[in-house]
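Quick one - first record:
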Amino acid sequence: MGHIDDMKELIRQEIQSIGTLEERVAFKTLMEEVFLAIYEENEHMYTELEHRVQDELAYDVNRYLVKTGVIERQMYDTTHHLMSPMDERDLETEQYGMDQILESVRAGEEFRMMKVMLRCDYLQIQKLWKKEMEFDAVIETTSPEREWGIRVRLHPNTEYLQKIGHLYHLFIKNGIPWQTINTPYLYKMADICVTKLPEGIDGTETIRRIRFQFGEYHSVVCQDLIPIWNIRKLSLDSIGFPIPCGDHKSFEHSISIKEYGVQHAYLAEDDKEIQSIRQRAERLTITSRIQEAKKWEVYVIQNAQDNRIDYYTYPVIQNERAENFSEKFQRKWNQSIKTQAELARFIRGFGLEEYAAYQSYEILEQFQGKKETYSMNPFIEDEIRDTRMQRKLLLCFRAGEKEPWLQRDIASFIVSEVQRLYPEYECGGMIV
């Protein structure tokens, strides 16, 4: 209200300078009934415009926040209002028989028994993959009652990373700017695969239990963990008939989201190209070439808060960052961050210092073995730039106090976000 008060004070001073009473009254009436009314209306409209601009600039970040985590299968609540399994099949214990294992091994293929999480640092996992180690395991059977020694191997699981890649393409198809999803747990998921069976197994045995012997890795192999996120898939019907658009080629389809919540963000999926998707009040409006009403596959990014009684053994990680107005404006118009202070402010805006605290950066010709991070956007292909010719931007982090086994993965998320801002460099990170 500072501007309007200043204007009123100027008018009062001007009135005092008028000599005759009649002129004072006429001038005061003119100011109050015409000028001030117009000024106050303009001030109100300007304030509303400012709020609309700020809301528009914050739209893609605030509404499309993605959270990821893992939870023990037996602890997952199917009525949970926020977090859902990335793969619904994970809710069921994997079922298989000895005949299936035997058939795969005889065909020269490895049989996947189950998915596990490796609770260890990224560099330790990379050493495991390079060694291509095999481990002993014992299958206990009831018919006949006997123990069979087998050999197994751990392989990286990529099923969940493919879901993140699919989500990226959904963002692009729906016209939503992509922001890296913070997914440290997905790079620690592994498959236990049977490589060898002993002689004498005929496939009729009944499996009672399996004991694994992972040696030095025994303490880091965690079974029965389910990757979760705040996204779920729905199948929703169109409301009424599609409305033709002005180009006489496209149609607008309306979908009610009242039952699921207007505070959430929605992404539509379809085989045909979606031209746009808009959310207004309790409806989604999809513009597409499809002429007839149909069911739409819709992904809901849920923005509700956890209940106080919700508990997770491992931290739930998100990709949100705090931004001021200037940063939102820069992002809106694709303006690059070019100063040291702005780079540091951008990184610290994620609030992840408890895991990896940014310290400094280096410009290098080659990483020379210093890079300890990976890209969390491997599905984004850059077919133009030759990374061999790019200079290297190395971000240096100090290890935080929380979850040492996640710190290089958290640093990888930050580096992946910085990479989007600095395409002229190949970005990497290390813990110092």
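second record:
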Amino acid sequence: MADFYQNGIVTTLHSLSQRSNEDLEAELLKFSAIRPMGLILPSLYSELEGKALPAIIKHLSKTKYLSEIVIGLDQADEAQYRQALKFFSKLPQQHSVLWNDGPRLQALDAKLQKLGVAPKELGKGRNVWYCMGYTLATGRSESVALHDCDILTYDRKLLARLLYPVANPQFNYEFCKGFYARVAGGKINGRVSRLLVTPLVKALKKTVGHHDYLEFIDSFLYPLAGEFSFRRDVLNDLRIPSDWGLEIGVLSEMHRNYASNRICQVDIATTYDHKHQDLSLENSEAGLSKMSVDITKAFFRKLATQGEIFSTENIRTLKATYYRIALDYVEMYHNDALMNGLTVDIHNEEKAVEMFSENIMTAGQQFLDKPMDTPFIPSWNRVVSAMPDVLEQLKEAVELDKIEFSNN
């Protein structure tokens, strides 16, 4: 029996029945006449050569309700960009490929750098930010979804369920976060969400006290899910981090900009698997270790804007509180796994908790050492204010790239 429990202050839309994808897509097709729908795909060139993205494109090619697909292409030279244009040409929808490493978009980025309104770091956050700007520039989509390109268990129903809450004209949601059980290959995955974010939020509640923001984050069943959807107007004021704090940063922005009744989460998949990051026990600048530092700093930054004062002493207390709670969660997940015939390696789980615990101290020290550090990319409203024709320049650059390189 499906769960129908409403968790916290954000609406949860469950999968309570076996509704067919055909039924969902037929309804979305009707909605598209009122609210045209788009999709953003932030991609590395290497993902074109993997297993996940070719399968995703096959699914998307059968999706009739989409008006536009915007692909952000990172780490590609000219030959690879040409190949990407051919690769995505299978899509029947209006689609555009942003060649982020190409001379035109690099030139535009240099102009924005001079004005102090460009992303400071390479990575997914920068890719997503430019895709969002291009989506604003075209104006083709009213409701937009975003998901990663490494989902090995992708199904069209994932996208349909993700878009439905912001596409249905009877709903008033501005933002929707996807969730799912991170179970694949006979084991429970999602270590950063299970063993860092959830116990860290619980520990912050104990050490910092009641906060609407912490209640908000604790309402999400999978806060680190890379799949979310939104109404186009959300993009104007959204500031997103350029580091691994992207997902928490986006949620923090939604908490700042919108009432909780305009935000929801939706069950989008029964199984979900994607590319796994290394734990990187010996290197805090790589893999899940860096991710945990960036996510923890995102919490410190947000709570500081809420008036919280952090010191070495209370960060040390937070670490100790987190560690005890996280160890309890290791046992909870182990028992849940056994009940369902799944495996969990307790030794590796506890090693992850120990690393996350150390990284809370690392993140705290970095936060205290650099109080002026601002990893957020400026909102598109601010960028347009600094360069009024930036969206036109962005759109033109993408279109000229396609014209120049698609037929040669």
